[in-house]
Amino acid sequence: MAIQHVRTSIPARSFWAGLTALVVSVGLAGAVAPTARADGIDDQFLSAVESRDIKFASPQAAILAGHQVCNELDQGRPKGDIATELTNSGKLDGYHAGFFVGLSIAAFCPRHHG
Predict the structure, then answer these.
(1) Which residues form the DUF732 domain (predicted)?
(2) Which of 4, 12, 23, 84 is paired with 68 by a 20 to 30 Å CA distance?
(3) Which residues make Cβ contacts (< 8 Å) with residue 31, sequence separation at least 6?
């Protein structure tokens, strides 16, 4: 018996709603469980984000947002649309949004580089 994978498209509005819910749940889990140490890729990503003066509520929020960028790219969203969504949501200005998308790709989904 074969397992069938179904991929659905997530509307742009739910991008940040889902990310916000995930960040809140991680934050609540962090209050109960000990904090996990980021791996080498996460550490490099966080260092690059910090070097570009890109601000998130926590390191975990930045990592989750970086992975969400990759999820959106996997679903076929163009890089520019994701950067625009980051800008329109008030999370980052256009300059930093573009860098954040690029840093996310380099760290978490280099298959989308190019």
Answers:
(1) 42-110
(2) 4
(3) none
- What 54-62 contacts at long range (C-beta under 8 Å, 24+ apart), as own/partner pairs, is 54/92, 54/96, 54/99, 54/100, 54/103, 57/23, 58/23, 58/27, 60/23, 60/26, 60/27, 60/30, 61/23, 61/26
Q: What is the pTM of this model?
A: 0.69
- Please say whether the beta carbons of 3 and 78 come within 8 A: no
* pLDDT tens-digit readout, 24-75: 444 444 444 434 445 899 999 999 999 999 999 999 999 999 999 999 999 9
